[in-house]
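Go through the following before class.
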Amino acid sequence: MPRLRRLFPILLSGACASTPTDFDSRRTRYLDLMEGTESHCNEILEDVKLRRGKETVQGRLSAVQKNLEEARQLRYRRVETENSEMDEYFETFFLKLDQLASQDWTAGEGERLWDKLQFNCSICHGRFRD
């Protein structure tokens, strides 16, 4: 029996190694949300080029915000200080997103606003992309 007790932790660690960790699941979900956000941003550019109007773009910006709010809650970074730093980036991005949503996304102006959106995305991506 003592030998079995010594093997038990080894058996458990082998079982756990074959299943995804909570961290892995959160990271995967985070990356999925970022891909969805990128898709929404590309759709915004298409909307601008096709002159679909402010309401269409606002709907997509809402979808971006929804994705990012969920991503923020995942706190997928292994280092807690990085999660806290990301919170600050998210908060700033949401403020910028509100400003962009209130703008008139007409053809000429829309492309300039899309560039602003991409710039705001790049700030966080430049710091945290992995």
Notes: The helical segments are 2-17, 22-49, 54-74, 80-101, 107-128. The CA atoms of residues 30 and 71 lie 5 Å apart.
